[in-house]
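Following up on my earlier message about copper (II) ion. Here are the inputs again, as you asked, copied directly from the submission form:
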Amino acid sequence: MVPKQAARRRFLRQGMAAAMAAAMPPGLLAANGSLQPRANPNFNADVELAFVARNGLARILPQGPLTAVQTFRAQLLKGPNSVLTELPDNYLGPILHLQRGQKVRIHFRNELSEPSIMHWHGLHVPQISDGHPMYTVAGGETFVYEFEVLNRAGTSFYHSHAHNLTAEQVYRGLAGLIKVSDAEEARLDLPAGEYDIPVVIQDRRFDRQNQLRYVQGMHERMLGLMGDAVLVNGRPDAIFTVKTRAYRARVVNGSNARIYKLAWNDGSRLWAIGSDAGLLPAPVSKPYIMLAPGERVELWLDFSGRALGEELTLLSLPFSGAAPAMGGGMMGGPAQGAPLRIACFKMGERVGDSPRMPERLADFRRLTERDADNASAPLPIGLSMAPMSARINGRTFAMDKVDEFERVALGSVKKIRIFHDHARRGGMGGMGSMGMSRMLETAHPIHLHGHQFQVLSRTADHADAGAYASVKDGFIDSGWKDTVLVMPGESVDVIKPFPDYKGLFLYHCHNLEHEDLGMMRQYLVE
Ligand code: C2O
Ligand code: CU
Ligand code: CU
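Thanks, got it. Here's what our run produced:
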């Protein structure tokens, strides 16, 4: 980096620090510690990586011109070769495979012509390494992340979290899968190697020249991007040629706004063994699984006994109620809840032997209300939409703002209630009304940074019980989570520990268009 940029960056950071000092309680800056993103010589990294974000061209559609994308590329500087696996010919970044307990240093360099920053969605890391948008760096600049992998074994993903640009940058390709392994998982002897498959689901839309088209206009932005092409691992019309045995599939919803209702075309049930960033206590069988943007589900796919050449299709079944009643004319791809094909699994080889699904998976304690210190006064996350704005507790995101109740004591365990807040008038000025707010009610996948949470309960009070019935059997709430889908009419109570890191931790809607519209706030852990 040239010294001038370094000086400018320091100036910007000090400016940011000064702005926060003015608006925030004292103590925040102490929590931030040094804002300098430099390698710490006392941090002995087991794994060291260089990541860049850059513009590129990728083969996404089978024919015609290549597609202009933004993409993460990485290089291993230190650590085992297994840390990085490239998806073949792909606009997604490489798969990052970490072990619990590893110390990781990542040098990120932004080679785009616009600001960017990386976030490790699902990993529980210190604030300065969490990719908070305050750390967004300009093109040509670098940022150094250092963290220890505290997570249990599970599936997460990294993506851009650039201030006001998250949705469009993720859409253009700035995302990749993270696997974490640990000793508890190793004892389970789950399908590994070629039998451990990534399934990153994204919807995109292309113009006639094969170029990505992003949302246009406020109406589309409020619905969130609805693509007409379903990509799996960066390509349309995914076909997996498999053996007649068990697989572990790591399914990530990496779409901006689309929710999937995953199911097999032949009606057989799905078996889940993991949710966001972790294995479940025990496998769960479901007729279908709801997977909202930011959520992950690990599936146990058992093709044992199937005939050679047989095909099974993973679908997204139709569901209703997730988009606002005012949604109106479809401008993008199929509407939220429309049926889609996700991927085809074709039996390519008969094998006699298959591992059995373990009966028990991860061993952890289920938290109850009694573990929270605020059971009778949960922290509110009240969601409201109004034309031009998406809000939490009536407010939009501000880098330097924390409400009094968003200040959380380090070491505390909080109950948090996520609900639709009809009393808010949003950004509608005098036109605001409860009726309008209800008409705009939509599904929101709510993501909390920092330590994972557990779902305590869901309450649905909706007039439109039929719509809710089309999704309600598809939630997997028995594990640790970092993102939870809150359907219209629904209120969800979660419990979240704030055990070890001070500082600012975001919470936001993972409909990325909603996030960029301001449906994001932060906790100050102090
Ligand atoms: Cu996956 Cu704050 O985001
Ligand atoms: Cu995140
Ligand atoms: Cu939302």
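One observation from looking it over: The helical segments are 3-23, 28-32, 166-171, 183-188, 217-223, 434-439, 465-469, 512-516. Hope that helps, and feel free to reply on this thread.
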